[in-house]
Amino acid sequence: MRKLLLAFIAAAAATVGFARGAAAYPQFQFSSGTNKCSQCHFSPAGTGLISSWGRSESGDTISMAGDGGFLHGAVTLPSWLALGADFRGAGTRTDDGGPEAPSGAIFPMQADIYARFAFNDAISLYLENGVRGETRPSDPSVGGRLSGVPDRFISREHYLMWRPSATGPYVRFGRFFAPYGLRFVEHIYFVRRFTGFNLYEETYTASGGYVADDWELHVSGFVPPPSGFPDMLQSVGARESGGVAYYEKRFAAGTSVAGALALQARVGVATELARYMGGAVGKLWIEPAKILFLGEADFIRQQVSDASYGQTQFVSYSGLSVFPVRGVMVSAAYERFQENMSVSTTARNAYDGQINLFPYAHCEVVFLGRYLQVGAANQPAATLMMLQLHYYL
Amino acid sequence: MHNPPMTCRRGLFLVVAAAAVMGCGGMKDDRPAKWSFIAPTIIEPSCATVNCHSAIGQRAGVDLHDRATGYQTLVGRNFAVPFNPDQSEVLFLMRAQGSERMPPDVPLPNADIDLIESWIMAGAMDN
Fold it and tell me: pLDDT, tens digit, for every residue of A148-170?
């Protein structure tokens, strides 16, 4: 009971910072010596607060130097308590060919605080709280409904979990994204942006599954936040209810060439639209070259009953990440989203280049460049350049 | 449980990679110029994002998070003027004609804007 009380006190105290998105770095699967996401995260499918193993990896394997422990190792928390935080700020330059382009912005991107309370070896409570970031600069002439920081408090993740061991079965209930896809931290990628996993689209989810050394299965059912919930518990996007299944099989983990192949399906039904989605995820790590290939492809069938019309969409990500020296990750990717596969001019193509630097444990610098081609060839291309600073506690 | 041969694994990965870069489609656009289609497939996923025109964002007082609210906003506030695309500000915004382009993160394909224009020309009904 005392732990539960402490949990809720911490949850209240945690609402002080800019929420962004609980996601992960799938690029570290295999490349960091770990073969499954849950080795470094408390979540059985990855994302969110990292475990003591993850903290150790972040200091010893991923960053150039430093101690990845909580508060840089200055404090050792009791085994029943794990805390963490993410803070991100960014500067962007965008050019879409419009009369006001190019334009720039400097903004707080994320301030999330995490707490995990273990009541015993199997049951834990996970809480995340933060404040929604503001990408576009404040301008009273285009101001919205929200004005101050208190109005932007949001808790995107909070769940109760039964997970008696690192491998084996688990069940969790609460608010979080059902496991699906590559689960990038970059929410602008089409495989998140257009699939129901965009920023703050977390649902209330019941999820169960099994994590083994060389495979894992996650099956989930989800509903949108009830309309009576306050803003800090609401989500955006289609208010779908449905189910998700994700199965991943890993091959030759720990060898010079390792990989994983996942099959996935998602059904989401809302008042205005039904969405049936299925696809695959592939990862291939070549240790001698320090290169990781990542791919995801999904077909989405949308059915709009009021319009008596259905359309098939396609979304994909194809990329590679190279780790030339410790603390440096260089990535390139091609993305495609075709809004209607019968109409070629509804396609969006993006070409991404990214450098992630981890100069010291807890610190990250990200350089991102994106070239976006939308629709027909005669439409002007859009570009995005971003510098992001990230610190995690 | 044994692993499949490495060639098989690479083949599986190539299948995923090939699917990831594919694309197709024709030029004919048979999508319905109806608000019941445009709202959930174009407007809401492109415009009703968290810090823009979602229910909890309502940037510039504009809420496009569902079909009914979006219609009330666009037509009720004359962003879309029935039968008159030349007076419909939503088209100017989407085409960046004299203003910042909307949406600012991923511009809409011209095919989508043309479909919205067709809906306006047909009377911008809540159909």
Answer: 777 788 999 999 999 999 999 99
B-chain residues near A312 (CB < 8 A): none
Report CB contact under 8 Å: B1, A270: no
**Domain limits, chain B:** 33-121
User: From the centroid of its chain, how far is CA A152?
Assistant: 20
Q: Is the Cβ pair B13, A261 closer than 8 Å?
A: yes
Contact A340 B31 (CB under 8 A): yes
ipTM > 0.90 for the complex: no
User: Across the interface, do B51 and A133 touch by the CB < 8 Å criterion?
Assistant: yes
Six token digits for residue A263: 């099959």
For residue A319, what is the domain's CATH number?
Answer: 2.40.160.10
What pTM, to 2 d.p., does this model score? 0.90
Report the pLDDT averaged over residues B20-46.
85
Q: Locate B61 and state its tokens.
A: 């007082």
Q: What pLDDT is recorded for position B13?
A: 56
Q: Are A194 and A166 in contact (CB under 8 A)?
A: no
Q: How far is residue B118 from each of residues B7, B33, B89, B91, B112, measured CA to CA in Å?
A: 51, 6, 15, 11, 10
pLDDT at residue A150 in the model: 76
Distance from the B65 Cα atom to the nearest Cα atom in chain A, whole angstroms = 7
Number of domains in chain A: 1
Partners of A238 on chain B (C-beta within 8 Å) are 40, 44-45
Residue A35: its chain B contacts at CB < 8 A?
Answer: none
Note the pLDDT tens digit of each residue in A291-324: 999 999 999 999 999 999 999 999 999 999 999 9
Structural domain boundaries enclosing A313 = 2-392
Residues of A in contact with B46 (CB under 8 A): none
Q: Cis peptide leading into A102, omega within 30 of 0?
A: yes
